[in-house]
Amino acid sequence: MKNQKPLILITNDDGVSAPGIRALIDTMKTIGEVIVVAPDKPQSAMGHAITINNTLYLNKISKENDTVTEYSCSGTPVDCVKLAVNEILKRKPDLCVSGINHGSNSSINVIYSGTMSAAVEAGIEGIPAIGFSLLDYDWNADFQQIQSFVKKIALETLEKKLPKGVVLNVNFPKLKEKDIKGIKICRQAKALWVEKFDKRKTPFGKDYYWLSGEFVNQDKGEDTDEWALENGYISVVPVQFDLTAHHTIQELNTWNLNG
Amino acid sequence: MKNQKPLILITNDDGVSAPGIRALIDTMKTIGEVIVVAPDKPQSAMGHAITINNTLYLNKISKENDTVTEYSCSGTPVDCVKLAVNEILKRKPDLCVSGINHGSNSSINVIYSGTMSAAVEAGIEGIPAIGFSLLDYDWNADFQQIQSFVKKIALETLEKKLPKGVVLNVNFPKLKEKDIKGIKICRQAKALWVEKFDKRKTPFGKDYYWLSGEFVNQDKGEDTDEWALENGYISVVPVQFDLTAHHTIQELNTWNLNG
Q1: Which of A103, B4, B148, B230 has its CA 20 to 30 A from that of A9?
Q2: How far apart are the C-alpha atoms of B59 and B64, rounded to whole Å?
Q3: Is residue A1 classed as helix, strand or coil in its secondary structure?
Q4: Is residue A59 part of a domain?
């Protein structure tokens, strides 16, 4: 067992053919045995959605002799993790990595992100998990610049094990490898999207909307992921799925709810 | 201003015609001015999904003389909140209530729930928010038994204001009003779904899956939402959207990431 290669599950939300997941597969192949289960189409901003009112399809897309076994799935990123763990993998993976996302999942974006929700789902199932995102929405983003960092963070996670109930949200600045200053453990910056809906008319005269908006960072702290990324660092935020605001329970117990 | 009725935004994930939201509207009408913006179809288990690769439609479904203004929306519960705040409401609402969900959103369900994600989105936008759920999946569930509690919690939230960065996740046991023992402030129980995919064949011979599973409570604590509900109490969990596991930052700083 000691010399067994680690089993690594890979997924994403940009779809199985995205360059970001291809780069992640290339890196993880150098560390362990890799199984890919990823959406058959883009599933960005799906949050922690799961498919309960519809059927799910799973297609093996790799060939028999390929070094990596790959499946595409008709569902969401979270569906992919659930199907992988329950229907495909013979043992619990040693690591689940999600991404590399084309675009930022820093700060409040963690909550909308399919990439991060897949990692969180793995975490809920007791699998050490990391979501990786590059601050470049371009389909042809240069993932090569960050490959060595991705490998270092994955290896360190395999060795040190994550604290219980925690997964990692890793975001990379859009910089050349030599210009990246290092890796910082951060907290999630307090921020939000200020929406500006783009209202249009269909050719038939009916109003419709496109969601668009502007990211507003309300947080001046120098210990946040936004600060790290703006200053040339890779941000690593430990993310938990116990959403309880424990520090507010005492205050809420003073409310008059049982009078 | 002092005598102005509170403005209350109502949404849900079961769709605008669900009995649960109808019950919530009836109760909130007795407290304030009500605007409804809810999905035009069921959107359960959508988590914090938003619609970014598709268009959104908004239809006013109430008549001019109705006491409550209602819109249906083609998007997710989170889309509904974003559209309401940015395109419909003239001022920031004093309260956003989501539900009443047909079925539990206790424990880890909070993370998959469209009902709770709508409340969380309102919270991110600085609006006091509550998600309500009844532990009865039946379309004809008896919401009348919990109306007085819904009103009490909403009034107390309007009066006391929520702690910053927190929304409330309220779950009701399926009991008669007289048998409900009271309201308990709780933490989210540690639990997960153990999946059992139901594998079938299409009429054309292709495999497909239905996601199903069993809820497993791993938490024996008597301060959890699961304990409260099993023992006849209404559970109220303060939920935060800063997902940072602050208590693990020190440990992660001992990792060898910049060597």
Answers
A1: A103
A2: 13
A3: coil
A4: yes
Q: Is residue B123 part of a domain?
A: yes
Nearest in space to B43 (alpha carbons), one of A71, A40, A49? A49
Instruction: Inform me whether the pLDDT recorded for B227 exceeds 60.
Output: yes
**Beta carbons of A211 and B185 less than 8 Å apart:** no
**Which residues in chain A are contacts of B240 at CB distance < 8 A?**
243-245
CA–CA min distance A252, chain B (Å): 7
Please give the Cα distance from B72 to B61 (Å, whole number): 7
- As averages over each run of 10 residues, the pLDDT of chain A (259 residues) reads 83 96 98 97 85 90 91 95 95 97 96 95 97 96 98 97 96 98 98 91 92 92 98 98 97 93
Classify residue B199: in a domain, yes or no: no
- Decide if B211 is inside a domain: no
CATH number at residue B120: 3.40.1210.10
Q: CA of A9, closest CA in chain B: separation in Å?
A: 17
The shares of helix, strand and coil residues in chain B, as percent rounded to the nearest 5, are 30, 30, 45
Domain count, chain A: 1
Pull the structure tokens for residue B213: 């599973």
Cβ within 8 Å, pair B243-A240: yes
Q: pLDDT per residue over B228-249, tens digit each?
A: 999 999 999 999 999 999 999 9
Structure tokens at B9: 């935004």
Report the distance separating Cα A39 and Cα A73, nearest Å: 5
